[in-house]
Write a structure and sequence with these properties.
One of its GO terms (molecular function) is phosphorelay sensor kinase activity. Keywords: Kinase, Membrane, Phosphoprotein, Transferase, Transmembrane, Transmembrane helix, Two-component regulatory system. One of its GO terms (cellular component) is plasma membrane. By secondary structure, the protein is an alpha+beta fold. It is 59% helix and 13% strand. It has 3 domains: 63 residues; 67 residues, Helix Hairpins (Orthogonal Bundle), CATH 1.10.287.130; 151 residues, Heat Shock Protein 90 (2-Layer Sandwich), CATH 3.30.565. The strands form 2 sheets. It has a 5-stranded mixed beta sheet, with helices on one face. Strands 1-3 form a two-stranded antiparallel ribbon. Helix 4 packs parallel to helix 8 and helix 5 runs parallel beside helix 6. The longest helix is centred in the N-terminal third of the chain and has 55 residues.
Length: 340
Amino acid sequence: MFKHKAVVIVALFAAIIAVVFALLFHWMHFTNNINLYLSLVVLFALTFGVIVYLLNRNIYSRLDTLYKLMYASGDKKLSDKNVNIGRVEKEVIKWSQEKEPIIRQLKAQEKFRREFIGDVAHELKTPIFNIQGYIFTLIDGGLYDETINKKYLRKAQKNINRMIHMVQDLDLITKIESGTLVLTKKRFLLSLVIEEAIDEVEMRALEKDIKIRYQKPKEDIWVIAEKNHILRVLINLISNSLKYGKKGGKTEISIKHKKASNKYWIKVEDNGIGIKKEDMPRIFERFYRVDKSRSRNEGGSGLGLAIVKHILEAHNETISVKSTFGEGTSFQFSLEKALK
């Protein structure tokens, strides 16, 4: 019932003393002994001192505990000779204000962790259940039916590859975030990497009847970066434009160089479905999809743009996006110009 033992003891002690004083006063009413009066004063002083001591000790111990929690490093200690409640109150308020951003950050991280685990579970659930269905069908006799066995095995393989790519993408993001990814920056010809990325997604473009146009500069463009990772950035951006593109649409790739700058700016622009304003702040988040139904039907890990952002940040480069819903989207990122 009572949470604070010291408070209970003080209250009990005070109650007993109050009863004693009441009895003494009642007795004094019938006597006129000066010694009794003096004894009563001394007893009152002692009682007052004991109560003050117990309360002070209880309050001090709590303030000391509070200080230890506030200053866990132990550099700052509370002096029992000068316990200033006003000063302590100010320090507690200051401390809470300083910790408020950290608390908000921890709450945001916890929310992100929960959402991330939920997203991973959701993304893995679909291919796993698909594979399970294909295997059960094969076990139930489909394995010996040549009209469906290879078909179902290919579908199972496709879902397995989807999970493998997701795990690889998550592994790459984890390495970048933890700083364990080693970047081997070298000088390379940017146009060759762009053309390689276009070749990689060419079949998808044909399937969706989307034309990919590359405005190749007349002069050679040399940049310095991790070649394979920049190839990944380009493939992801072009694939994203195809995924959200319109049939018969186009995706254009161009390079610009601003004077007095050591950066090249690569733009990937499409005339697809575009992005709504409310979706813009979240497009680089893991597993976030602008058009969830379209994305899931076409596959993918939902990590493409997150990987793009992480790779470019690891290179100390930037990426920006402009979009008009219903008209199209434009991504533009920077790369360091290589010295000749």
